[in-house]
Amino acid sequence: MASNAVVEQFDNAMLQVYQRALSEAGYKATRFLSMLSEHGGLATAKTLIHAHTVSEGYTALWERKRLDLTVEAVIHDNPKWHQLFTADELEICRGRLEQYQYFG
């Protein structure tokens, strides 16, 4: 089980990725910010991962060639967060990123 400190750090990382998407990619992820404030970063990430299709934000960041700012990439690229997710959730992240040529 992950510590509360790691969950809190992940919540902060999710807020930072919102801020970076706004400042670096010009993408204002209003719905994502609303989800973060209502549910926290971890629950928001899990909701987005378990959605049947990628979010509007994922698509918008893909169009801007900034998949590095997606929730999936933040999780995939930092092993520190892996403890917060199941193997299946990590595989969904990897699969989506691969499908959209993130590793390319």
Account of the 3D structure:
With 104 residues, this protein is mainly α. The protein is 67% helix and 0% strand. The protein is globular and about 35 Å long. The protein starts with a helix and ends in a 5-residue tail after the last helix.
Short description:
The chain is mainly alpha-helical and 104 residues long. It is built from six helices and no strands.
Features of the shown structure:
104 residues; mainly alpha; 6 helices
Distance between the termini: 33 Å
* Main β-sheet description: none
- How big is the Rg? 13 Å
The total of helices stands at 6
* SSE order: HHHHHH
* Oligomerization category of the chains in this entry: single chain
Residues in helix, %: 55-70%
Q: How would you classify the helix and strand content by structural class? A: mainly alpha
